[in-house]
User: Which sequence fits this backbone?
């Protein structure tokens, strides 16, 4: 999970995305799907991604945050 967190930190700095809050939290009951990333945006439903590698984190940043496209293959359903 640390590698994924660090990848997201680097992307925020590289893209000068100051409006993004990145924080570590304790278990949310999805231990088998860790690392977990939640994208929470105003006016849009929360999306939770599971088994997020640094490469997947980059895709989330580019496609979901950058373009509004949800990566369905990593979405955790029914939480």
Assistant:
């Amino acid at each position: 999970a640390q590698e994924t967190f660090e990848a997201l930190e680097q992307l925020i700095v590289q893209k000068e995305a100051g409006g993004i809050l990145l924080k570590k939290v304790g278990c949310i009951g999805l231990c088998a799907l860790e690392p977990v990333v939640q994208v929470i945006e105003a006016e849009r439903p929360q999306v939770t991604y599971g088994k997020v590698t640094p490469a997947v984190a980059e895709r989330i940043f580019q496609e979901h945050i950058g373009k509004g496209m949800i990566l369905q293959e990593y979405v955790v359903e029914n939480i």
In short: The mean pLDDT is 90.
